[in-house]
Design goal:
Order of helices and strands of chain B: HHHHEEHHEEEHHHHEHHHH
Strand content of chain B: 5-15%
Distance between the termini of chain B: 42 Å
Strand content of chain A: under 5%
Oligomer: heterodimer
Distance between the termini of chain A: 43 Å
CATH class of chain B: Mainly Alpha
Number of strands of chain B: 6
Strand order of the largest sheet of chain B: 1-2
Order of helices and strands of chain A: HHHHEEHHHHHHH
Shape of chain A: globular
Number of helices of chain A: 11
Radius of gyration of chain B: 22 Å
Largest sheet of chain A: 2 strands, antiparallel
Helix content of chain B: 55-70%
CATH class of chain A: Mainly Alpha
CATH topology of chain B: ABC transporter involved in vitamin B12 uptake, BtuC
Radius of gyration of chain A: 19 Å
Strand order of the largest sheet of chain A: 1-2
Number of strands of chain A: 2
Number of domains of chain A: 1
Shape of chain B: globular
CATH topology of chain A: ABC transporter involved in vitamin B12 uptake, BtuC
Number of domains of chain B: 1
Number of helices of chain B: 14
Largest interface: A-B, 41 and 42 residues
Structural class of chain B: mainly alpha
Largest sheet of chain B: 2 strands, antiparallel
Helix content of chain A: over 70%
Chain lengths: 293, 365
Amino acid sequence: MSLAFFIQYLVAGITYGTIYAVVGMGFNIIYNTTGIINFAQGEFVMLGGMVAVSLHPHLPLPAAIAGAVLVTMAVGALIELIFIHWLSKPTVLRMIIVTIGISILIREAALLVWGHDVRVLPYFTGNEISSISLGGALISPQVIWAVAVCAVMVMLTTAFFQWTMLGRQMRACASNRVGAAVCGLPIRNLVTLSFALSAGMGALAGCVVCPITYTQYGMGTGLAIKGFTVAILGGLGNSLGAVAAGLLLGIVESFTVSALPAAYKDTVSIAILLGVLFLRPSGLFGAGAATRA
Amino acid sequence: MPRLGPMRPALLRQVAIFVAVFVTMELLAVAGEKSFLLTQVTMSAYYTLVVLGLSLLMGYAGQISLGQAGFFAVGGYTSALLTTWDLSAQRSVGWVAGAARVGLLITRTDAFGAQVLTVHPWPALVCALVLTMTVAFVVGIPVLKLKGHYLAMATLGLGTIVYSIAVGTARLGAADGISGVPPFPFLPGIGVGGSTGARIVNYYVACGILAAVMLLLQNLVHSRVGRALRAIHGAEDAASAMGVDTPYFKVRTFVLGAALAGLAGVLLTHFNGAIGPSEASIMKSVKYLAIVAVGGMGSLWGTLAASMVLNFLSLRGYFGTLDDAVFGAILIVVMLFAPQGILAIDLRRALRLLRPVRGAPVDPR
């Protein structure tokens, strides 16, 4: 493999990897505040892309994207308010099944509204054929947009959790729910907020990759499996671990496509997921326990 | 079965009701000249086998599986592949000739009128079941060490792998699947599949198999094994402390559930004469999950009733393009409001709440 090809595959891997990282972080935010794994996480990415595509004819691109993020955040918050907010102590099995049901409903609603067709946003700068040369490899400007936006998003989220009052309250809620409630924190509202935040992150990621990977109503399940793989690989609840694991998974996947038929691309990430669950359930960087749940 | 003595009258009554309901359905369908409906009832009966296996796994062993459609597909595809793979070009090869001589292979006429030499459906069934159970066993040992989300995601992943293998492999027909599967010679003169003229025979074969499986499962859950499983569901650590070999029972139930799914896959593939990758899709597994949720986890009769009704409605196309959405909504509603299944809803208590009362409000509990 020549250097140019190597860089080409590497960049493709990093592009997909950043999406996986963002979906994985979304899993972590909700898991941290509620202990729930939200199986509808991938649908947020799909919704973000779809809403932006629908808004774009009427609004300039940045406004369309902002609108898509807000709409998806509202959907995330609504889901929490309708289905989860009022349950007092749901069992894990019950919550898994409910979020699976939610993911199907969102997907079917998207199918009714947007149909089977693949939707696409225009490139943020340049077009399909403009490219930047790097070591002989050709890189689309949209890839740089995607990676940059996701990187900024990860940094802002980390800063939010580290340094703002709201972020700290959410972390308090994550580390000890009862303790946080005793201190007077509005636990239930923080949970709603975590759903909105997680949905918004997914939606933004869905918008920036829409020009490259396109958006289709059924894309959520695959993203959810990969995002979950990344969240586990990085140690469930560990956001920076998820970022590292996301990039790793994206790059591994990208290079397997160069060796295996593309139909087996998803199989590779699932095999990684199963391998990690069987051999190192605490993740590469974490110290949780998959058997505890 | 002497040690099941006290159980038997109840069991006999249940079986009698089962037989009565299914015979009545057949007679009504024929009398009303709607016997074409029996085709969907037959298919529902086979899907019910899958759902019963899942109900056992979820309700008794307390383990979730989103890979049930995968096991169905492993069984169905194995049987379809073996019974349609024409070996007549290899007739002179030693093992093919030997297998043909002992009756493992049969010569039949395919849909295009050509003579083909394929594996006999019975040995194909055995291969399919052995393969399904082996996969379930090998996968089950590590997977069932996981709990909650991890188990759900791992089984979802397994289902996805089976699906992508089915779609991505040319030998398995890729997106088209395998068609031209011959009828299954269940007994001499009685086959699963074939012409529409054999519809009523097919219906009774399916009901008979379903009844036999129901009987076996009823015996199982009321035996030592069933008590051990319920103990695991109730409190796994406590069961383990009481000396129940929890990993053994979990894997055993997983393999049994997979075997039922594989059996259903084989029979339904022969009945339809074809199988496609959609049988392995995640949505199928989720549908099975929804049906178990409606029937009530751990209630085999509830699951059977829910499965027959929902599968029939779905197969007849009553839900139209909203089929998937209906099952998604069912999942959510049942899990939010009646996590024990809709048969567990105490209607009398609910109605008491609606009765007009005088004076200060009183909690009827």
